[in-house]
Design goal:
Blueprint (H helix, E strand, L loop, with lengths): L1 H38 L15 H17 L4 H19 L4 H6 L4 H32 L12 H27 L6 H21 L12 H25 L4 H23 L3 H15 L1
Length: about 290
Amino acid sequence: MAALRESDVARETYRHLRMILVALAAFLLIGSIFGLVFFGKFEGSISANYLGPLRDVFVAALVGIAVCLVAYRGRTLEDFALNLAGFYALFVAFVPTDLDDTLRGIEDPAIREEMVNGIRVSTSSVLVAALVLVIAEKMTGNWPGDAIGSKPVRAKALYRLSWPFAVLFVGLVVYRIWEGEEFAWIHYAATFLLIISMSVAVACNGWPKAAGEDDLTDQPLYKAIAVGMTLGGIVVLAVAYWLFRGYHVAIAEWWEVGLFLVFWVRETFRNWDSPARAKKAAEAAAGAV
């Protein structure tokens, strides 16, 4: 009975984790819509909410999403990509878009210093927390990179390719924390790397053999989503710039969020009983011995 209860707890925890991420994205969208209703303005990008009345909604939603992405345990390369996505999402949340222009526009030195120090504290905290988490993952044998060695060449290549970008990004953050004048490029770099990391996570399910995993029934859908998040995102941004200039970034961002949510919801239904299935597989393997 104890084992059954543990399985039930694992299953319900898994389900809630996946559902919470969807709820947080919905929370962000609903907040944006309510912002239009109450303030008469729909921001030109999701990130622009940081400097507006919906700052708390924006930051809370992104931090929650980041935690869900890191906490979720996917297949090896997918798990690593989602960890990176969660890491980058925190910098999208804590470092607002066009912060350099905002800081230059603040005439009161005390207010400017307070804002700079606040961002220094938040970004430094993320770096330290990420380092502690990586060390803990390595010590407990849960670091996805440890299992990459047994994966195909393309999976290893993606894993290794991600590290220079991550190191360069961390270097940029450290430099901006030390420099403390503009924090330029942090937000845009984090946004770009977040989208790429989410796309890689989806692609791992669209081309599972390349990631060293078993085939899935929904591979065509996931391939379409991965392409839509990369090449499709560029097309959507260009078309939106032509037709809805001023809101083109927001349209492209919601396009990316929407596609990832389609993937996430479909995977949630497909793996609804994942912990239970894992337990049954383990019991079957034990019985066969």
